[in-house]
Amino acid sequence: MHGFSTVISESTIYVAAAVPVVMGITSLATRNDALLKDALCVGVGLGLSVGLCMSMKYIIDRPRPYETFPDYIHNITTEGSPSFPSGHTTIAFSIATSLTLAYPKWYVAVPSFLWASSVGYSRMNLGVHYPTDVLAGAVLGAGSAYLTYELNKLLWKKCNNKPLIGLKSYQTAP
Prior knowledge:
By secondary structure, the protein is an all-alpha fold. It is 72% helix and 0% strand.
């Protein structure tokens, strides 16, 4: 089971990098301004959640379970930062929430949140997080994504939904 948990856990970094980049490249290739705005929203939400998470980690400075209970928890991997909240879970729930808010369909939400929940479980299974670390990461990631989504809606409304790219071929006709 640790092999599966390792794969799921490590997928977080690749998915976090790929989702906004692929959305951005696809938006430019298809000249889809709405998709570019969604890509920026995912990226900004991810940045906000990671920034808050890392700040909280060093302010709270909670030791990892394998450090606190070395006789009972034999870690598969070691981590260089404190335990609370789970950064991988924060990232996973930020992406899942951002995608679900941008595309509120069951076939986006269900796999996104199943993956995010699997990431959280994998972090506990690997002995690097307590359940409260994972819960806090899920709340922080989802909350950051939701906040970013709402702020972006206000921003685009205030900007009268102007296109992000100033190329004539990119803009829609007036």
